UniProtKB/TrEMBL annotation:
Lineage: Bacteria, Bacillati, Bacillota, Clostridia, Eubacteriales
Organism whose genome encodes this protein: Clostridium omnivorum
Family statement: Belongs to the phosphate acetyltransferase and butyryltransferase family.
Phosphate acetyl/butaryl transferase domain segment(s): 5-72, 77-294
UniProt cross-references to Pfam families, sorted A to Z: PTA_PTB
InterPro entries (alphabetical): P_Ac_Bu_trans, Phos_Acetyltrans/Butyryltrans, Phosphate_butyryltransferase, PTA_PTB
Keyword annotations from UniProtKB, A to Z: Acyltransferase, Transferase
Protein name: Phosphate butyryltransferase
Keyword Zinc-finger: no
Source species, domain of life: Bacteria
């Protein structure tokens, strides 16, 4: 997989999935749903203020014929209803509309109708960066703040599951640090070395882990060669496992705002994927996120 165009084509070749949108009365979100449906990526159930949803749909020329609308003007109740549609199997994935992230997460974690699995939830962002011959998976840029080793194992496994859903059979994972040598005074390098050893011993499966690696020698074979760093991941990383939310967030926003890249992202570790896009995200980014969620939902099935 080298581009989101390939991702979109892969989604179209699968059975169409259905996404439940919580508080769907949001213009950018409805634009993304309109485009996703038009492209054959996903169908939708819209939960929210029906009058406002219909008014926005009319404004953006979105034909709602055949789309189920559940009228629930209250945001908290709309979030719970959308989650319930997913947990009951009436929808395959969840999307946040005009809601605070905390509201949708409370619904996701609801003990009765939520999407808990007992696993750690984490965010996986996928970037198509001009000049790179592969998609880059960045985790965790949005959810887990300062993960310990146990949490990093879960975050790594979550990212591997997304990469496999996209079509990467054996993802190469680089635990990213400031340096590429183990330094006891830099805990992230110690974690990276342990993750690598766990992978070598078969405790982490389905991928290749090698670290610590600095960002340059994880992404560039030339940089790795210059520093005399060899190995199956050096310069060839698919997944960049960042040490904390600051590093992840900086990388995410730097790629977003300083490169002509395309991206999408989802929350995983739940029983169904969750699309948690920002209001600042473009309709294209939202549509890419829906496509990623559809692939993960297909793998989960």
């Amino acid at each position: 997989m080298k581009s989101f165009q390939e991702v979109l084509e892969k989604v179209k070749n699968n059975e169409m999935k259905k996404i439940a949108v919580a508080a769907a009365q949001d213009e950018p979100v409805l634009e993304a749903i309109r485009d996703a449906k038009a492209c054959g990526l996903a169908d939708a159930i819209l939960v929210g203020d029906k009058e406002k949803i219909e008014a926005i749909a009319d404004k953006i020329h979105f034909d709602l014929t055949g789309i189920e609308i559940v009228n629930e003007p209250d945001g908290t109740k709309a979030a719970l209803k959308a989650v319930e549609l997913v947990s009951s199997g009436k929808a395959d994935m969840l999307m946040k509309g005009l809601l605070e992230t905390s509201t949708i997460l409370r619904a996701v974690l609801n003990k009765e109708v939520g999407l808990r699995t007992g696993k750690l939830m984490s965010h996986v962002a996928v970037f198509e960066v001009p000049g790179y011959d592969r998609l880059l998976f960045v985790t965790d840029a949005a959810f887990n703040m300062y993960p310990d080793l146990k949490a990093k194992i879960d975050i790594l496994n979550n990212a591997v599951s997304v990469a496999k859903a996209v079509g990467i059979e054996t993802p190469k994972v680089a635990p990213i640090c400031a340096v590429e040598v183990v330094n006891p005074d830099m805990p992230a390098t110690v974690d990276a070395a342990i993750l690598t050893q766990m992978n070598n011993r078969g405790q982490i499966k389905g991928c290749i882990v090698d670290g610590p690696l600095a960002t340059d020698n994880a992404l560039s074979e030339e940089a790795a060669k210059h520093k005399k760093i060899s190995g199956p991941v050096a310069g060839k990383a698919d997944i960049l496992l960042l040490p904390n939310i600051e590093a992840g967030n900086v990388m995410y926003k730097t790629l977003s705002y300083t490169t002509n890249s395309k991206n999408g992202g989802i929350l995983v570790g739940t029983s169904a994927p969750v699309v948690l896009t920002s209001r600042a995200d473009s309709p294209e980014t939202k549509m890419h996120s829906i496509a990623l969620a559809a692939l993960v939902a297909n793998l989960n099935r």
